[in-house]
Amino acid sequence: MVRLIALFISIVLQIIAASIALRFMKLTKYRLSWILLSLSFVFMAVRIMIQLYEYIRGTPSFTWEMIDIWTGVLISFLIIVGVVLIREIFISLKRAEIDRLKTERRVINAIINTEENEKKRFAKDLHDGLGPLLSTVKMSLSALTDKIKDPHGQEILKNTNHIVNEAINTIKEVANNLSPHVLTNFGLSSAINAFINKINQTKVLEIDFKSNMENQRLENEKEVVIYRAVCELINNSILHSGASRIEMELNKHEKFVTLQFYDNGRGFDTTRLGQEDNKGMGISNIETRVKSIEGVFILESNPGKGTSALIKVID
After folding, report:
1. What 3-state DSSP class applies to 314?
2. Between β-strands 206-211 and 245-252, what pairing exists: parallel, antiparallel or unpaired?
3. Which of 10, 86, 76, 23 has the alpha carbon at shortest distance from 49?
């Protein structure tokens, strides 16, 4: 009786398994490997039905026994061939994943390039459009200097001239931050040095920068990504960490370029980045940009122990 119940349960389970496998055939685009595996489930159910028939019949039959044995052989053959061929499905899945990642990188690169091109256009419009207008205003003010004799008027003119100079310098600063000409003309190391020198002049914190890439260039996209990442890391240290010192090294090795960053700030719990949108957004941007050039970005930090970061890019 127990055997009879077991046979019935086995038949039900095998029929369910065969039905599920047959439904998946469409998803696998009717690949031969899955068809063979599905047939093996079907023949398993048939084999158990044969065993149930033999059990109910009560009298052993050599013919049905041989059918049962050869059905088992057929099932084994179908499973072996199916398993051997099923790697084609995994290869297709892997190929689809690689294509997805490539498409994702192309989209991200297109977004980054569009963003950088817009920054360059805006910087050029500021420098070439508004800059000359302010320079003309400055010249006009200079021409009025000899014509205004009133001391109060001279003071107003002097203050106005000072404000115009500040506006011209601000436009140059904004245009350079949007599209650093040093990065375009002299490369990554020089651009980072120029940015760091401006920070060091403010005495907000001290930045120590070392590099073996003074006269070496990378692809434009890689230089832009690393430069933007450096700016973001430094800005995060200034705004959030309370650091007094930053150490950075940019080095080119045989096959890759590394940027190592460390600040002695208060640090933070990196597991909270996803919960703190304001703090996590900059880090997320760095990760996305670095990933777009097939690089690696690693950030480590602990409360009270500062923050360190590593960017590694294939040259």
Report:
1. strand
2. parallel
3. 10
DSSP string, 90-116: HHHHHHHHHHHHHHHHHHHHHHHHHHH
pLDDT of 108 higher than 70: yes
Token pair of 282, please?
Answer: 């900059």
Nearest Cα neighbor of 218 from 245, 192, 248 is 192
The per-residue pLDDT for range 224-235, each reduced to its tens digit, is: 899 989 988 998
Do β-strands 296-301 and 307-314 pair in parallel, antiparallel, or remain unpaired?
antiparallel
Give the Cα separation of 211 and 217 in Å (integer): 12
Segment (H or E) for 298 = strand 296-301
CATH class of 180-315: alpha beta
With cut-offs at 50, 70 and 90, classify the pLDDT of residue 270: confident
Q: Which of 85, 72, 71 is nearest to 37 (CA)?
A: 85
**Quick check: pTM over 0.85?**
no
Q: How far apart are the first and last CA of the chain?
A: 72
Q: Helix 220-236 vs helix 188-202: angle between axes, to the nearest 10 degrees?
A: 20
pLDDT in tens, 76-100: 888 888 888 777 777 877 888 888 8
Burial of 147 (0-12, 13-18, 19+ CB in 10 A): exposed
Q: How far apart are CA 209 and CA 259, in angstroms?
A: 10
Distance, in Å, from the CA atom of 246 to the CA atom of 286, rounded to the nearest integer, reads 18
Domain chopping of the chain, boundaries: 2-105, 180-315
Residue 109 has which token pair?
A: 């690169």
SS3 272: helix
**What integer is the mean pLDDT of 260-269?**
90
Q: Which residues contact 219 (CB under 8 A, 6 or more apart)?
A: 293
